[in-house]
Design goal:
The complex is a heterodimer of chains A (273) and B (362). With 273 residues, chain A is mainly α. Chain A has helices at residues 2-34, 51-57, 60-93, 99-107, 114-127, 134-158, 162-170, 175-204, 207-212, 219-226, 233-272. The chains are: A mainly alpha (273), B alpha+beta (362). Bound molecules: adenosine-5'-diphosphate and magnesium ion.
Chain lengths: 273, 362
């Protein structure tokens, strides 16, 4: 019994290490092979080079795709956050019938198979007679960003006590002044966090973009196209590495902002309860 | 002393659908008064306070502050300030910024603003804590910040919604004293909402007792405790023995009642006494009954038997059955003379003060 108890922690540690390994090892290969001189991803590495990164900047198809992705991600994150703000405010502030079901419906894209959503969106777009373009991609991305944006915003708004706005009015501040001096500073972190998360999701998203785009490729779609050519692989790895770094940085900032905000509201929460 | 009216509430009703949270309420509060709205939870106290502050609008009726009707005037342009039940301290600002929040709009020169902030912080004994973050404060300190933030605006009326209910007992009692002292120092009209009768009695110049959206009685603490006008008020303000009585005579301001044991009692007639047949109720507070020890006698005494006894430290609560009364009498007696040792079942004699007997409307 005691032997078992002694062994358990070491087994658990081993399990955890393996788990993390499987999760992140492939991701680590990406940057490693992206600075390899050989075009095939194989150990041992034949030499160190930044050539693939330099090539990226001089590939017009790629810079176009990067520009497309940026446009789509900016639009999708703005729209998703805007809808998210409306929904989160309604859900946290008002009691209305079917509040929970509506919240559930908004969160559903999180668990539905993305390919099903993508195909249905495609059908809808075609039925509506819309030409497939970056705009239809934006629609698709807004749909899948909303659940993330909504959950970030709801947790941000939940700590916001209505009486703070009343206190501001009580102290003589106008409705606009109250918004500027109380509401905005209180909810800004959640909004920034929602923008960053949505932006990152849109930037990395493949299935929706693949189905809903016309002739313009976003970065993930471009990568998919390049994978057919073995010679292009190092470039794809380099691009992938850059996307990975961008995502990690953006999500880290989003999380820091969100935590700082929730620490602030939680500290006050105890007493209001 | 000039008695100017500061707040005039006339026939104010607030309906939520068919439900009336406040029903045709009229009330007049004087300048410089410490006024309490007392009543059980859900009786409409907060509703009334929020309408005075401007966060809610009467369905009908008018509220005037300092002679000015407040119809259509939003909260940010009323000469009132509020201390919220949740305190509503701005968590993204420090203590000083919280207190100066409302002053910013007045565009005072910086040194004048600083002086007023410091004065307000000193008034609530928070001097030196100006730079502290709002989230680093204890419950009691937050409450003081909320108070300073409102006082610094020099309002005509300060509204307080159950400001002490979140504090523990010791701190609450200390704050009651401080709040009362503060009100006397600044001379501002305070309106306090509370469901705690001791708090209202200890702090107020006058109290309005409310039930179900209506005001039952408005009077000084002493009057409301000693001469409640109906059974509900009497009961809410503390223990009260109710004795069934018959009306013998009713004229002008007095009423004569006939009771089984106390005999004939002539007393003040309750305000708005609506006679309903011949029956009435006579009340006496448990502490106005006194145990007669050994062979002591009194002009006014009743005899009975102890049926129950509860020990409360400084006092003992005795339940005494009196032949002729359908319900036993409650008596609270200090423990100085050994009331805590009276055995259950023992015969006992009680003295009462006829002046402590009050006629009550049902
Ligand atoms: N927005 C509202 N909608 C419906 N009923 C309400 C609303 N606000 C208050 N009430 C009701 O009005 C009554 C008085 O409430 P309130 O003034 O908060 O009581 P309290 O005396 O405890 O402060 C309560 O029965 C409450 O349920
Ligand atoms: Mg209340």
């Amino acid at each position: 019994m005691t032997a078992l108890r002694k062994m358990l922690p070491s087994w658990l540690t081993a399990y955890a290490v393996l788990y993390i390994g499987f999760l992140y090892l492939p991701v680590i290969f990406l940057p490693i092979f992206s600075i390899n001189t050989a075009a095939t991803p194989k150990f041992p590495l034949s030499g160190y080079t930044l050539k693939w990164y330099r090539d990226l900047a001089t590939t017009p198809a790629l810079t176009d795709a990067a520009w497309n992705s940026l446009m789509v991600a900016v639009s999708a994150s703005l729209l998703a956050t805007m809808f998210g703000i409306c929904a989160a405010r309604a859900i946290t502030r008002y009691r209305f019938p079917a509040r929970r079901s509506i919240n559930g419906l908004l969160m559903a894209p999180l668990v539905l198979p993305e390919i099903i959503i993508a195909v249905s969106m495609l059908l809808v777009m075609l039925q509506l007679g819309l030409n497939l373009s970056l705009i239809t991609v934006v629609f698709g991305h807004v749909l899948i960003c909303i659940p993330y944006s909504l959950s970030v915003l709801t947790s941000g708004f939940e700590g916001f006590d209505r009486s703070l706005e009343e206190a501001s009015a009580d102290l003589g501040e106008s409705p606009f002044g109250t918004f500027r001096r109380v509401t905005l500073p209180m909810v800004a972190p959640a909004i920034i966090s929602s923008l960053l998360v949505s932006f990152t999701i849109s930037l990395d998203e493949f299935i929706m973009a693949f189905f809903l785009t016309g002739t313009d490729a976003t970065l993930p779609v471009y990568i998919w196209g390049q994978l057919r050519f073995a010679a292009k692989l190092p470039g794809v790895l380099a691009l992938g590495t850059l996307l990975l770094i961008a995502s990690v940085i953006l999500l880290t900032i989003a999380e820091i902002v969100r935590r700082r905000a929730s620490r602030r509201t939680q500290n006050m929460g105890g007493l209001i309860a | 002393m000039p008695e100017r009216t500061m707040i005039e509430i006339s026939r104010v009703t607030r309906s939520y659908g068919a439900f009336k949270a406040l029903d045709e309420t009229s009330l007049s509060i004087r300048e410089g008064e410490f006024f309490s709205l007392l009543g059980p939870s859900g009786c409409g106290k907060t509703t009334l306070l929020r309408m005075i502050a401007g966060f809610d609008t009467p369905t009908s009726g008018t509220i005037s502050v300092d002679g000015q009707p407040m119809d259509g005037i939003p909260a940010n342009r009323r000469p009132t300030n509020m201390v919220f039940q949740s305190y509503a301290i701005f968590p993204h600002l420090n203590v000083e910024q919280n207190v100066s929040y409302g002053l910013k709009r007045l565009r005072l020169n910086p040194s004048e603003e600083q002086r007023r902030v410091e004065e307000a912080l000193a008034q609530v004994s928070l001097g030196g804590l100006g730079k502290r973050g709002a989230t680093e404060l204890s419950g009691g300190q937050r409450q003081r910040v909320a108070l300073a933030r409102a006082l610094v605006m020099r309002p005509k009326v300060l509204l307080l919604d159950e400001p002490l209910s979140a504090l523990d007992k010791k701190l609450r009692e200390q704050m009651q004293v401080e709040l009362r002292r503060l009100q006397q120092a600044v001379g501002i009209t305070f309106i306090l909402v509370t469901h705690d009768q001791y708090e209202a009695l200890a702090m107020s110049d006058r109290i309005a007792v409310m039930f179900g959206g209506r005001i039952a009685q408005v009077a000084t603490p002493k009057e409301i405790y000693q001469r409640p006008t109906n059974c509900q008020v009497a009961d809410f303000l503390g223990g009260m023995n109710f004795v069934k009585a018959n009306i013998v005579e009713e004229n002008g301001s007095t009423i004569t009642l006939d009771t089984p044991v106390f005999g004939r009692v002539k007393t003040d007639k309750p305000v708005a006494f609506a006679r309903n047949g011949n029956a009435a109720t006579l009340g006496i507070r448990p502490e106005r009954l006194r145990v007669l020890w050994d062979d002591a006698t009194d002009k006014h005494e009743v005899a009975g038997k102890v049926v129950d006894r509860h020990y409360f430290g400084e006092i003992t609560h005795l339940v005494i059955e009196i032949p002729g009364f359908e319900k036993p009498l409650s008596v609270t007696e200090t423990n100085n003379f050994g009331a805590d040792d009276i055995p259950v079942g023992a015969p006992i004699r009680l003295a009462y003060d006829p002046d402590a007997l009050v006629a009550l409307a049902d």
